[in-house]
Write a structure and sequence with these properties.
This protein has about 375 residues and is α+β, with helices and mostly antiparallel strands. About 30% of the residues lie in helices and about 30% in strands. The chain has 3 domains: about 80 residues, Rossmann fold; about 60 residues, Dna Ligase, domain 1 (2-Layer Sandwich), CATH 3.30.1490; about 180 residues, 2-Layer Sandwich (D-amino Acid Aminotransferase, Chain A, domain 1), CATH 3.30.470. The structure holds adenosine-5'-diphosphate (ADP) and magnesium ion.
């Protein structure tokens, strides 16, 4: 069995490590010369939308998947009929455009922050008037880690926001003073089997995920999140892992966005779950029975952004994952996972490690 992945970053690398355990071979397409996943399989060095590379991948693999959601949907048509592609292209289509994604949530009765499409300066004025400040504007396409976003807090922020992002199609959404953020990761296999991981509580700084902890003692919230994920998996006839990011505000649970792939907020599942999200993604797309998503304790994950401090190397209070990437400000270089017997112990470990981690300086400058 050989799986082809479009993209060979750290997600492709962690998929590759899971593949090794299952006796599956991996192959990748990626434009960089030494991507993180190169240690796991052959990399065809090429642009993500290069038909020749995609055809070469599809002709030599049993199934194709991708590790990021900006693979052009059109490019996938080059491999149509050569090998199945999971998650399905429709999921990619919705997740690539924040407006389509929000319309999908609406159609499934999944609550979300009030929003409006913005295509002109007049639209922006109207959106601010209707939604009320603060408002965040986001590029409809290609945003990640808080990039392509601008938070408007005062009426005189409008000009700067428009100067920064007005040349692209946008959505404006109400800024939600959430209590906290969670994500729910689900997986559906070709045969339609579904498994849901316990939700994790996530902290973002400057729009970038900093820490995740799971499980949470919140049965009603967990049930709601799981219900939303079931609706998405069913509607999209989904195959693979899907992550849904949510805002919790009092007793309301609002969808933020979903990712049709393995997700940073699920990295703790490598040590913290009976079966990791990476292994279950492979099981799902290869039509194997899914593995248990039961937790093995209280897991915490701290992202290592911009640098991996020497003090963390060799420390024995967590499992360090170094993706082998060149250090650059704002870049996710690795993560540390800790496991504890209870939530308080897990929180203490996460905080101790987090204190050693340099503050990220990237992301949208005006995000509070
Ligand atoms: N409407 C909002 N209200 C409050 N915080 C928000 C809102 N939109 C985004 N954020 C914050 O910014 C982070 C990144 O935004 P998100 O829409 O998830 O973009 P990305 O694709 O970059 O992850 C969120 O996890 C959250 O912390
Ligand atoms: Mg996000």
């Amino acid at each position: 069995m050989r799986v082809g992945i479009i993209g060979a970053g750290q997600l492709g690398q962690m998929l590759g490590f899971a593949a090794r355990k299952l006796g599956i071979e991996m192959r990748y397409v990626d434009p960089s010369s030494k991507p993180p996943a190169a240690v796991c399989g052959k990399v065809i060095q090429s642009a993500f939308d290069d038909p020749v590379a995609l055809i070469a991948l599809a002709e030599t693999c049993d199934v194709i998947s991708y590790e990021f959601e900006n693979v052009p949907v059109d490019a996938l048509q080059h491999i149509d009929g050569l090998a199945p592609v999971y998650p399905p292209a429709s999921a990619l289509w919705f997740s690539q455009d924040r407006l389509h994604e929000k319309q999908l949530f609406d159609s499934l009765d999944i609550p979300l922050a009030p929003y409006l499409a913005v295509n002109s300066r007049i639209d922006l004025d109207t959106a601010v008037e209707k939604l009320g400040l603060p408002v965040v504007i986001k590029t409809r396409r290609l945003g990640y880690d808080g990039k392509g976003q601008f938070v408007l807090r005062h009426a005189d922020d409008l000009d700067a926001a428009w100067d920064a992002l007005g040349d692209r199609p946008l959505v404006a959404e109400q800024w939600i003073a959430f209590d906290y953020e969670v994500s729910c990761i689900g997986v559906r296999s070709i045969r339609g089997e579904i498994a849901i991981y316990p939700i994790s509580r996530n902290v973002h700084i400057d729009g970038i995920l900093r820490t995740s902890r799971s499980p949470l003692d919140a049965p009603s919230l967990s049930a709601t999140a799981s219900d939303y994920v079931h609706r998405l998996l069913g509607e999209l006839n989904y195959v693979g892992v899907l992550a849904l990011e949510l805002f919790v505000v009092g007793d309301r649970v609002l969808a933020n966005e979903f990712a049709p792939r393995v997700h940073n907020s699920g990295h703790w599942t490598i040590e913290g779950s009976a079966t990791s999200q990476f292994e279950n993604h492979l099981r799902a797309i290869l039509d194997m029975p899914l593995g248990s998503t039961a937790s093995l304790g209280h897991a915490g994950m701290v992202n290592l952004i911009g640098e991996i401090p020497d003090s963390l190397r060799g420390a024995n209070h967590g499992k360090l994952h170094d993706y082998g990437k060149l250090a650059r400000p704002g870049r996710k270089l690795g993560h540390i996972t800790v496991l504890a017997d209870n939530a308080a112990e897990c929180d203490a470990l996460v905080e101790k490690i987090d204190k050693n981690v340099t503050q990220s300086t990237s992301g949208p400058e005006n995000v509070a």
